[in-house]
Design a protein that fits this description.
heterotrimer, A alpha/beta, B alpha+beta, C alpha/beta, A: 12 strands, B: four-stranded antiparallel sheet, 13 helices, globular
């Protein structure tokens, strides 16, 4: 792959993407159209995130990729390898050591710092899409700040189910102006959207980039009497004992018994290295999982 | 004790190795060559070039080999490759008027200057499996004739002379490149046509068929279908004039559709247009029908609510690479999102149950 | 006193054909104007021009906005016009499906305008929706039903509730009782009359039914072939029509 430019994309394309990123940072939450390129992985598999990462990576960076919070799910492995080959950047699984983190569907549990960039893979950037299929109409609604329909959806949820029935990709209002889809992160992660790091969102197939600058006000939509609640399973991690991290539920035998463990594998491993042990965990040793 | 499974990297490597083995198949059977695919599967090569938006039969043949015959997978390979190619500039518009036609037919006139030339078409074959082909595909030479020196003007030009057909606006403006600028709506006709020519053949065919069956019917006649080689010319800045840099084969289809007029304007026929790389007839005709359907607004027609009239619906869903990418992405892990759904549904059920038992108690 | 709506020389053409032409009038707060005519008279075209659904070819439609007084709505920016459409103005369509979200519950339909102007308390929104449904005689137990489960008359009443919940000052109505059973019509007209008085609404009602204008409208405009051929106080025009066409209309009404 040495015939390819650094991080695969040519410089003109990277410049185009960076312009879109800057525009997105200048207008937090606004979806900037960009001419997404065909990448060597399919649309829908992170091409937006990959293009954003390719545009922001420099040779000195350290790169981390997670999918569902884990570094070793096949899609994360595939993308990490892609950048190892085409950019030659250092890679890591340790959240604290990465400058650029590309993620699918989770925000890392460890608090991000001002020198870190979080790149999200976004399938459907338009929060109003399921209420209004027409792109022409939704762009108008954003331009005119006509978000009544969004709250009608929340109202309907409460009247039908007794509560707001959105568990992930929970819509937020950014800097008091644009309603944004934070990508399919569980609503548990929404409070983390206000952070010290830079957040960039890439949707390749839909051809949109948006961004949240550091310390931006991000409010999850709700009603005064039905306030937003970042919920998670009422368990602690069975491996490391963490009570404050988002958990994966695993079915471990035919009888349907289950155990819970941190979705963020680096967070869990770090805690176990520090000596924490959960209900079904064993003390950390170098070569264990 | 549950041990978290690792090994994603090894799994991927092994999967790729197995894939390569499957692609090669039985090693006692001779390997397919690129030349074989290019020569003997030319219509598959054409489709890959058309939807990959890259005219290179050898590369397309390679992609088909690598993709094990899955044409959408092959188109994907070509598209990804195209992304990496540097852009030197743009050619002059090709002149289909000067095409050396291998095939040229018209459904609107029995005969016209240039004649009805059937070309190497399946049209009149009987679709009977030829078992002889299984053993021996060698054929003798087809009969030859003297080359046709007669000019082959577009059929449309005759209708045009009588002012029977609406003119196309001739513009000097270079239209946007769909692969370089994001698609924004409403889309210009140029962008619509770009989208259709590289759109999935099956999808565009289905849309075209729907118009024939009454979903925004526009009574299309094939005024002309022509297939052949055209020169590609490009102006070289250092030379100050254009030179021919190569030749490509294209299929062009022009349809004549129901006429329109008003009290002040005498009626004229309206048009649909299709242009595709290679000998790719079905696609070119489908494209012309869908092009015409999408023109309802500029022609002052009613929006009948037909899918083929809905610009957003057609243009956003005709790209098979986008479509398959998103479709197949649902195979990827979604257990975190699913987990949050699980928790929500359990919570709502708990609340519903407690409401029911409360009401029962009352 | 400033008129609420000042219409000046509105005209709309379809090629050579006249949609409507030379229409001017002033409407004051609390006044109801009826526009009557038969099919093809131009009354619906006129209403759509006034309500901002159709751009007229000539003329001005000035509305007394809260912030800036009389302002021409034709030349207003789109965001301003859309805001007006959600707050001070309301439009009751002839077919309820055009004025409702059929896949949203009755409560959601009524609450939408409230949520569009930043109401953020579910309980309050629901309470207000229940209140308004009650005022249009829809029982509380229907609040979570979709309009598809309602009769034609109920859908129309829901449409009215949806429109009036933000207290508009001007309501446009296009054949509000069209297609409804006679007894249902009567009930609806009674309801409308009560609400108009209670809320001091101004309204412009288009209809071919003289009984509707007799009951609801203070003033009347009779249209034929795109022109206004007679105008005046409702009772005057109906009891003592001057123009031949108006006389024909009035005399054609079946006496039962």
């Amino acid at each position: 792959m040495s015939d390819y430019n650094f991080a695969y994309l040519d410089e003109q394309t990277k410049r185009m993407i960076r312009r879109a990123i800057l525009k997105g940072l200048a207008i937090p939450g606004y979806q900037v159209p960009f001419a997404s390129r065909e990448m060597p992985m399919p649309y829908g598999w992170g091409t937006g995130g990959v293009q954003v990462s390719a545009a922001v990576l420099t040779p000195d960076d350290t790169f981390k990729v997670i999918d569902q919070g884990a570094d070793d799910t096949t899609n994360a492995v595939s993308i990490r390898r892609f950048f190892q080959k085409t950019a030659g950047v250092a890679v890591t699984e340790a959240t604290g050591e990465a400058n650029v983190i590309q993620t699918r569907h989770r925000i890392p549990e460890a608090e991000l710092r001002a020198d870190q960039i979080l790149v999200y893979q976004v399938p459907i950037p338009e929060p109003l899409r399921f209420l209004e299929p027409s792109e022409v109409e939704t762009r108008k609604m954003h331009a005119l700040e006509e978000y009544g329909l969004m709250h009608v959806k929340l109202y309907e949820d409460i009247s039908q189910h007794g509560d707001i029935a959105t568990a992930y990709a929970y819509p937020v209002k950014v800097e008091g102006r644009y309603v944004m889809d934070p990508s399919p992160i569980p609503k548990f992660d929404n409070p983390k959207l206000k952070m010290a790091g830079i957040q960039l969102f890439g949707a390749g197939r839909e051809q949109r980039i948006y961004a949240i600058p550091p310390y931006t006000e991000v409010v999850s939509l709700d009603f005064e009497d039905y306030p937003f609640q970042p919920t998670k399973a009422d368990h602690a991690c069975d491996l490391c004992g963490a009570e404050d991290s988002y958990l994966d539920e695993l079915i471990i035998d035919d009888a349907g018994n289950r155990m819970f463990m941190c979705s963020d594998t680096d967070y869990c491993a770090t805690r176990r290295k520090e000596g924490h042990v959960g209900a079904q965990g064993v003390p950390y040793t170098e070569d264990a999982a | 004790m549950y041990v978290a499974v690792k090994g994603g990297e090894r799994a991927i490597d092994n999967a790729h190795a197995w894939l390569a083995e499957e692609r090669r198949g039985d090693t006692s059977i001779p390997e397919l060559s690129i030349e074989q695919i290019r020569e003997q599967m030319a219509l598959a090569v054409n489709r890959v070039m058309a939807e990959g938006s890259l005219y290179d039969p050898d590369l397309a043949a390679l992609a088909i080999k690598q993709a094990r015959g899955d044409l959408i997978e092959a188109i994907f390979l070509i598209r990804a490759y195209r992304t990496t190619l540097p852009r030197f500039g743009g050619s002059e518009p090709i002149s289909t008027e000067d095409m050396a036609c291998d095939r040229r037919v018209s459904a609107t006139f029995k005969d016209a200057p240039g004649g009805q030339v059937l070309g190497p078409t399946f049209d009149y074959t009987h679709r009977l499996l030829d078992f002889k082909l299984a053993a021996d595909g060698e054929v003798g030479d087809a009969p030859k004739a003297e080359p046709n020196e007669v000019r082959t003007p577009h059929i449309m030009s005759f209708l045009d002379k009588e002012d029977l057909i609406q003119g196309e606006p001739s513009g000097q403006e270079i239209p946007d490149d769909l692969t370089r600028t994001p698609l924004e709506l409403p889309a210009s006709r140029a962008l619509r046509l770009q989208s259709l020519t590289r759109g999935d053949e099956g999808f565009v065919l289905g849309m075209a068929y729907s118009t024939q069956r009454g979903y925004a019917r526009n009574h299309a006649f094939v005024a002309e279908l022509r297939i052949g080689a055209v020169a590609v010319e490009m102006e070289i800045p250092e030379l100050g004039f254009a030179i021919e840099i190569g030749e490509i084969t294209v299929t062009e289809c022009e349809t004549v559709n129901q006429f329109q007029g008003s009290k002040t304007q005498p009626p004229q026929f309206t048009r649909g247009y299709g242009l595709v790389f290679g000998m790719t007839e079905r696609k070119a005709i489908s494209m012309a029908l869908v092009d015409r359907a999408l023109r309802w607004k500029e022609l002052g027609e009613d929006n009948l609510g037909a899918p083929a009239q809905d610009e957003e619906f057609v243009l956003y869903h005709c790209d098979n690479i986008q479509a398959t990418g998103f479709l197949e992405h649902i195979k990827l892990p979604h257990y975190v999102d699913f987990q949050s759904e699980l928790e929500l549904i359990r919570k709502l059920r708990r609340e519903a149950q407690s409401n029911i038992s409360q009401e029962a108690a009352e | 006193m400033t008129p609420l709506l000042q219409v000046e020389n509105i005209a709309k053409f379809y090629g050579a054909r006249i949609g409507c032409t030379d229409v001017s009038f002033d409407l004051y707060p609390g006044e109801v104007m009826g526009i009557v005519g038969e099919s093809g008279s131009g009354k619906s075209t006129l209403l759509n021009c006034l309500a901002g659904h159709l751009p007229p070819d000539r003329g001005a439609v000035r509305f007394d906005t809260r912030a800036e007084g009389l302002k021409d709505t034709i030349t207003m920016s789109e965001p301003e016009r859309r805001m007006l459409g959600r707050t001070d103005w309301a439009f009751v369509h002839q077919h309820a499906r055009d004025g409702l979200r059929m896949s949203v519950s009755a409560g959601g339909n009524v609450g939408e305008r409230l949520m569009a102007v930043n109401a953020r308390h579910y309980g309050d929104i629901r309470a207000e929706a229940i209140d308004w449904l009650g005022r249009v005689e829809i029982t509380e137990d229907r609040i979570d039903d979709r309009p598809t489960a309602f009769s034609g008359g109920m859908q129309q009443r829901l449409q009215i509730a949806r429109n009036l919940v933000t207290g508009p000052r001007l309501v446009f109505m296009d054949e509000p009782t069209g297609g409804l059973d006679v007894s249902v019509q009567a009930r609806l007209l009674d309801l409308l009359r009560g609400l108009v008085r209670e809320m001091n609404l101004s309204a412009i009602i288009v209809t071919h039914d003289l009984a509707v204008v007799r009951l609801l409208a203070d003033r009347l405009m009779v249209m034929k072939d795109g022109h206004v051929i007679e105008t005046g106080l409702t009772d005057q025009v109906l009891d003592d029509p001057q123009h031949a066409y108006t006389q024909l209309l009035v005399s054609s009404v079946l006496q039962v």
